[in-house]
Specification:
Elements (H helix, E strand, L loop, with lengths): L2 E10 L4 E3 H5 L6 H8 L3 E3 L5 H16 L8 E5 L10 H9 L5 E5 L5 H14 L5 E9 L9 H4 L4 E11 L4 E9 L7 E4 L14 E4 L1 H23 L8 E4 L4 H10 L11 H4 L6 H11 L8 E8 L3 E8 L1
Helix pairs in contact: 3-4, 7-8
Bound molecules: acetyl coenzyme *A.
EC number: 2.3.1.180
Subunit structure: Homodimer.
Catalytic activity: malonyl-[ACP] + acetyl-CoA + H(+) = 3-oxobutanoyl-[ACP] + CO2 + CoA
Amino acid sequence: KKYAEITGWGKCLPPAVMTNDDLATFLDTSDEWIVSRTGISERRVSHVGTSKLATVAAQNALAAAGLNPDDIDLIIVGTCTADEIIPNVASAVQQNIGAPNAAAFDLNAACSSFLYAMHVATQAIQTGAHKKVLLIGAERLTRILDWTKRESAVLFGDGAGAMVLEASDEEVGLLASHISCDADARDVLSLDFGLSFDRFGFDGIMQFDFVGQEIFKRAVKGMNAAVEKVFQQTGLSTEDVDALIPHQANKRLIDYLAKLCKVPSEKTVINIQNYGNTSSATLPIAFCEAVENGTVKPGDTIVSAVFGGGLTCGAGLIRW
Ligand code: ACO
């Protein structure tokens, strides 16, 4: 049996920091409200497009893997903030890094995109269809935020994370995954083009429309069920887990999930305070930081859980 080993990891966080106090200079909000409700203290704001963030994260991941771009045979970019609808972000990354032997596509499952992409890429490697895959989660959410709406403007940030997966005979990588979609809840989180997107042009402001408490309830339920499924698939349990890496949308939600899954706080990876919700990029950025600061070590078993608009949901059991 083939496995898809994580051989590279990288991230790109734009240097410009926007703090809660910065937001409070033009919105009716406060550091106290934002921290107590979400756990976010600051976020990054990019002045370059999603493809450029994706490219830097990809180059870092390739360097960590010690691979040349020529070696990559598939590039998948999880994103809901592509610079253009066509061509996709993945082809821009392919061009920027010079990876002529790769197929390239974007995948949109909102904030769940990276785990969805890992699920797809792992199976592509297990079937033998692909051998070296570059996976990226990249978002420039601040470009599309309505900065007059405090309920959404405070939540999101920009960034990108990447992984390289390579075929291996060792029992490593994404050992089990479960992805799902609760389509009856499609309406609880949406980001539409509104009336501003038509054949005459697009004025750049989209409307986030979401019912926070409903998302909270459904996300916790969906992620907990998905985590149970991956434990069942592998015969592992919470005691075998060295780290929980959840999607970073809200610290209270993460704490609640960790409690349900019985993972202690010292094993739960949280960086939302620094970056806010970077959608598809939260999982690879958090993985990258956990590797860099030693929270995650070679041989560790990691459980990841994600959710996003759709309402998409998923969990993965990763052996690094
Ligand atoms: N600053 C100050 N006050 C605010 C702000 C703000 N930035 N935003 C909202 N408020 C006010 C509201 O107007 C409301 O005031 P009112 O009681 O006078 O009407 C009050 O705060 C409470 O608002 P709620 O929306 O009920 O606040 P809640 O405690 O539910 O927190 C939050 C909102 C953080 C979004 C929470 O519901 C949550 O984290 N949900 C899950 C994650 C989520 O929905 N993320 C966004 C979508 S992206 C994704 O998750 C994939």
